């Protein structure tokens, strides 16, 4: 499982011109799934994202997490995180999970996060999502549950 996490002051997601998710200050996490991702990957990623210390404390140091501050996370399903651009100019997505497996993984991941008490909103799997976000910093981090980077 992979994620691109960005600190935001606010974020809004629309599908077909209708707002389906929004958060104020918090994190937007674009998440993609690889073949065989399981509960251990969901646990690692949920725990890592909710405890990332990327918000300033009273001394101006990035020392606080969304968990510490009670902020929200907007999870966006994004298969392109498994895009391989090493050869040619058209990315290959063969490294990602097949569609139905990824759909199930996204649903299981969101359920796990909610069961852990994470304040979260979510995108719609395979929808054409329009996302407006106000990056803060910017702070952008790459995560991989297999720890390949």
Q: Strand content of the residues, in percent?
A: 35-45%
CATH class: Alpha Beta
Q: Got a strand count?
A: 8
- Classification by helices and strands: alpha/beta
Instruction: Characterize the main sheet.
Output: 6 strands, mixed
Query: Quick one: CATH superfamily?
Result: D-tyrosyl-tRNA(Tyr) deacylase
Rg on CA atoms, Å: 15 Å
Please explain how this structure is put together.
The strands form 2 sheets. Strands 1, 2, 3, 6, 7 and 8 form a 6-stranded mixed beta sheet that branches. This protein has a two-stranded antiparallel sheet with strand order 4-5. Helix 3 links the parallel strand 6 (72-77) and strand 7. The chain has a single domain (2-144), classed as D-tyrosyl-trna(Tyr) Deacylase, Chain: A (3-Layer(bba) Sandwich), CATH 3.50.80.10. The longest helix is centred in the C-terminal third of the chain and has 17 residues, at 99-115. The model has no long low-confidence stretch (mean pLDDT 97). The chain is built from 3 helices and 8 strands, in the order βββαββαβαββ. Helix 1 (39-51) crosses helix 3. The chain has 149 residues and is an alpha/beta fold.
Set down the secondary structure blueprint.
Elements: E1 2-15, E2 18-23, E3 26-32, H1 39-51, E4 55-56, E5 62-64, H2 66-69, E6 72-77, H3 99-115, E7 120-122, E8 129-144
Parallel strand pairs: 3-6, 6-7
Antiparallel strand pairs: 1-2, 1-3, 1-8, 4-5
Summarize the structure.
The chain is α/β, with parallel strands linked by helices and about 150 residues long. The protein has helices at about 40-50, 65-70, 100-115, and strands at about 1-15, 20-25, 25-30, 55, 60-65, 70-75, 120, 130-145.
């Amino acid at each position: 499982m992979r994620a691109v996490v960005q600190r935001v002051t606010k974020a809004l997601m629309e599908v077909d011109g209708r707002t389906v998710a929004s958060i104020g200050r918090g994190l937007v996490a674009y998440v993609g799934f690889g073949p065989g991702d399981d509960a251990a990957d969901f646990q690692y990623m949920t725990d890592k994202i909710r405890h990332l210390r990327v918000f300033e404390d009273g001394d101006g140091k990035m020392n606080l997490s969304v968990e510490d501050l009670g902020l929200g996370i907007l999870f966006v399903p994004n298969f392109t995180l498994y895009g391989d651009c090493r050869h040619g100019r058209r990315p290959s997505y063969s490294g990602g999970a097949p569609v139905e497996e990824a759909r199930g993984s996204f649903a299981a991941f969101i359920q796990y996060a909610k069961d852990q008490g994470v304040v979260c909103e979510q995108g719609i799997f395979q929808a054409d999502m329009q996302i407006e976000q106000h990056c803060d910093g910017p702070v952008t981090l790459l995560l991989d549950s297999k720890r390949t980077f």
